[in-house]
Amino acid sequence: MRKKKRRKGKKIAVLLIVAVIILLAAGVLFLTMSQVNQLNDETAKIVRMDIDEDVIDEEIYTNGSYAEIEQTIKDYMSDYIENLKTVRTLFQDQEFSDLLSVENIEADGPEFKNSAEYLSEKRRTADEAFQKLEEMAGEEMIMAAIEKKGLSSYFEQLYRKLALENLRVNFMYSAEELKTAKESVEAMIASREEAVTFLSEHQSNWKLEDGKLKFDSDDLLSQYNDLAAAISQQ
Question: Which of 34, 49, 123, 215 could form a disulfide with 54 if both were Cys (CB 3.0 to 4.6 A apart)?
């Protein structure tokens, strides 16, 4: 009888241990899925962003190594968006719109040194921003951001799925899209550089009269009008 009771007691103890292990495993699995789901939610919020209106939520909602992933993604995408905004707002200042206005021609002509320096600075800013965007959209730089954290391969693969397979595809601009945008920006700058260079090189052949630009030959007037028309069509 005593042996039977002992065996029964051992079985109960084993069952209790198994039950505890199952509960612990279920708890770990639940916490893991909860953290992963939170990371998916935070990534989805970035994908849905209107960068002109929204900002990245800087609060960190996960813990441990998951928090390292969340922080890395948010820091990386904040930097990416800042460079993207630099490009998108490049021509929103009034000075760019007024380069060929009567007021600017009076103020900066006939040599247009200030206008040339301004356009040169615009080109430099655009080149730097586009280069950074191109680099940041590359797999090497995206993965380098998490590799320096020293996380396990599981977390690096999780980050890869979120950053490369989601954000890179659904939010970041592709190399081809950036190339097209860069060419458009360069064309806008170049057309204005060409116009102010034309006025500077032919400064003895034009004058402002009654608020209008007048050339001493129809040929020069036609050339300038072509330059101005190209700008207005951009």
Answer: 49
Q: Please state, in angstroms and rounded to a whole number, the distance separating the CA atoms of residues 182 and 126.
A: 8
Alpha-carbon dihedral sign for residues 99, 100, 105, 110: positive
User: Are the beta carbons of 147 and 72 closer than 8 angstroms?
Assistant: no
Contact present, 38 and 61 (Cβ < 8 Å): yes
The string of pLDDT tens digits covering residues 37-70 is 999 999 999 999 998 889 999 999 999 999 999 9
Give per-residue pLDDT as tens, 175-207.
999 999 999 999 999 999 999 999 999 999 999
10 Å Cβ neighbour count for 159? 26
| CA–CA distance, 167 with 81 (Å, rounded to integer) | 12
CA dihedral 175, 177, 179, 182 (to 10 degrees): -130
Please give the Cα distance from 209 to 213 (Å, whole number).
6
Give the single-character DSSP code of 62: -
Chain CA centroid to CA 199, Å: 37
Range(s) of the domain holding residue 158? 64-232
Residue 57 lies in a domain: no
High-pLDDT (> 70) share of the chain, %: 86
Bond into 110 cis (ω within 30):
yes
Q: Radius of gyration (Cα) for the chain, nearest Å?
A: 31
Does residue 18 lie within any of the structural domains? no
Cα gap 121→112, rounded to integer Å: 14
Whether residue 98 is contained in a domain is answered as yes
Tally Cβ neighbours within 10 Å of residue 72.
Answer: 19
Contact 91, 125 (CB under 8 A): no
Q: Decide if 183 is inside a domain.
A: yes
